[in-house]
Amino acid sequence: MQNGDSTISIVFPIHSDPTLADPILKAVLVVVQAVRVVHQGSVWAPRRVLAECITRLTGASAARSASEVVLERQLSSREREVFRHAATGLSNKELADRLAISRATVKAHLTQIFQKLGVSGRAHLAAVYHGLAAASSGHPVAAGVPRGPVPAVVRLKA
Question: The pTM is what?
Fold first, then answer.
């Protein structure tokens, strides 16, 4: 298709078997409709694909909400704030400066967070935050951290 040209040419062979002509024509019409829809900036996908995407998105959203509720119950608001910043890679000094608290207080908060979430260190904490890992399996918060093919990302609003 060239700029300003709205004509699309599709060439397909006519099969000698007349019973195949109708299904082929229907398939071509579907392709033409798909090209028009995509050309207009929309998405063309089979219904089952769209349905699966919607199911995954709503499932991930519900799981993320459940994780946030569990974290809200397990961690204080200050611990959630420290959790969020630590999980995104801030050092203890950067955390202390950003939150206007001492490094010792940051360490105390991190110790409490690690214990409450059952994580073994900052890398595990970051993995839980980004939905790449769950809290330790025997820990109460683990039930609220989603598992399965669709990882949830726990993000807490500032």
Answer: 0.48
Main-chain phi, psi angles of 62, to 5 degrees: -65, -40
Per-residue model confidence as pLDDT tens digits over 41-65: 887 777 787 788 777 777 666 656 6
Helix (H, G, I), strand (E, B) or coil at 153: coil
Ordered by where they begin, the domains of the chain are 47-144 (1.10.10.10)
How far apart (Å, rounded) are the C-alpha atoms in residues 41 and 24?
A: 26
Chain mean position to CA 22: 42
Beta strands in 56-124 (DSSP E): none
Identify the helix (H) or strand (E) that includes residue 7.
Answer: none
Contacts of 133 (CB under 8 A, 6+ apart): 124, 127
**C-alpha closest to that of 93 among 83, 80, 81, 106:** 106
